[in-house]
Amino acid sequence: MRHTLQLDTPVGTMTVTASEHAVTDVRFGAEVPLGAMSCREQEAPEVLRRAAAELREYFDRKRHRFTVPLAPRGSEFQQKVWNAMLCIEYGQTRTYKQIAQEIGHRRSFRAVGMASNRNPIAIFIPCHRVIGCDGKLTGYAAGIGIKERLLDLEKGRQE
Questions:
Q1: Is the Cα dihedral 69, 75, 78, 84 positive or negative?
Q2: Cβ atoms within 10 Å of 155's Cβ, excluding its own
Q3: Tens digits of per-residue pLDDT, 72-110?
Q4: Are 92 and 99 in contact (CB under 8 A)?
Q5: Are strands 23-28 and 36-38 parallel, antiparallel or unpaired?
Q6: 11 touches 140 (CB < 8 A)
Q7: Helices 109-117 & 76-86, crossing angle to 10 degrees?
Q8: Are 41 and 62 a contacting pair, CB within 8 Å?
Q9: CA-CA distance, 59 to 16, in Å (whole number)?
Q10: Per residue in 28-44, pLDDT tens?
């Protein structure tokens, strides 16, 4: 059974979904994933309450690393990309090309972009920290505006 919790954040409503043991989805918006049951925070499994608390701390600039267990579903290639993204430090960025090189697929930067777009656990797996080779912000499933706000928050530029 997966449970879902909705949170109000500085970038809008976010929906966090978890099994009893790990976060499986974090989405922008209020859409509840198929097969998940909405719940109140007080009734949510411990992992879901921890995820909500860590997200609040992140938006308050009090958390730079997440500790809640994650269980994203994806292909072997996507898992490699997402694991590489987990290594990008708070306030830092990498390019799609750098991620491709890090995972041993140096010419697959477009595929890295697609894996980034399919990241099921936004913010916890920090795909917002991946930018174009020219330093410009490119693609983000929730929109470039939110990507920019998250990067600004991490660089201390957001109020």
A1: positive
A2: 12
A3: 999 999 999 999 999 999 999 999 999 999 999 988 999
A4: no
A5: unpaired
A6: no
A7: 80
A8: no
A9: 15
A10: 998 888 888 898 988 89
Global pTM exceeds 0.90 = yes
Residue 58 and residue 146: Cα distance in Å, rounded? Answer: 15
HSE of 51 in the Cβ direction (CA atoms, 13 Å)?
33
Structure-token match 């600039």, residue found: 61
Is residue 127 flagged as an active site residue? yes
Say which residue the tokens 């928050």 belong to: 153
Active-site residue, selected from the candidate residues 39, 87, 127, 133: 127
Residues 6 and 39: beta-carbon distance below 8 Å = no
- Residue written as tokens 């949510």? 44
3-state secondary structure the chain: CEEEEEEEECCEEEEEEECCCCEEEEEECCCCCCCEEECCHHHCCHHHHHHHHHHHHHHCCCCCCCCCCECCCCCHHHHHHHHHHHCCCCCCCEEHHHHHHHCCCCCCHHHHHHHHHCCCEECCECHHHEECCCCCCCCCCCCHHHHHHHHHHHCCCCC
